[in-house]
């Protein structure tokens, strides 16, 4: 994989095929957890790490075990779901043991990551797209970076709408909460969609 292909694949995964705004994966933390930019960044980094770990671990498991013994058609989903859950929980436990001084806020997100469709979705996309291991790692890291950017953007929007309400320019009652978040997400998705013409 040459450098231009790596750059193009990374740009596409971050902006054009953004996990939240294009693939609609990882919407739960996007709409509920991203209330502060700091929290959004932490969970974005955690999702990125888990995407890379899960893709790096599930790629050989699928290729050398499931495909080798013709089990991928029947057991792939079940094996991926269980393996992704165990990987997230194991990584969380390992980080807690090795880095006990890290913010407890990060560890509180690991139960959410264990059931995150973004982490699992990255592994399925890598397998269904017949990526090699290098492409899988580049894709998972770039997708996690795109997820983090989307989380920070949404948290910034929420901060601004909350600040506007405190300054007297309040959001109409019918649009408070999720409605204004949906509208904001739609506008962000449209802005990302405008980048599709860059890569041919």
How would you summarize what this structure contains?
By secondary structure, the chain is mostly helical. It is built from nine helices and no strands.
Termini separation comes to: 18 Å
The percentage of residues in β strands lies in under 5%
What is the number of domains? Answer: 1
The rough form would be described as: globular
Radius of gyration, in angstroms, nearest whole number? 18 Å
The main β sheet shows up as: none
Structural class: mainly alpha
What value does the average pLDDT take? 82
Helix content: over 70%
The parts where pLDDT drops under 50 for at least 5 residues are: none
The tally of strands reads 0
Put simply, the count of helices is 9
Task: Output the helix-strand order.
Answer: HHHHHHHHH
Please describe what this structure looks like.
The protein has 200 residues and is mainly alpha-helical. It has one domain (3-198). It contains nine helices and no strands. The protein has helices spanning 3-16, 27-32, 37-66, 72-98, 104-107, 110-114, 117-128, 133-166, 178-193. Helix 8 (133-166) crosses helix 9 (178-193). The chain is globular and about 60 Å long. The two termini are 18 Å apart.
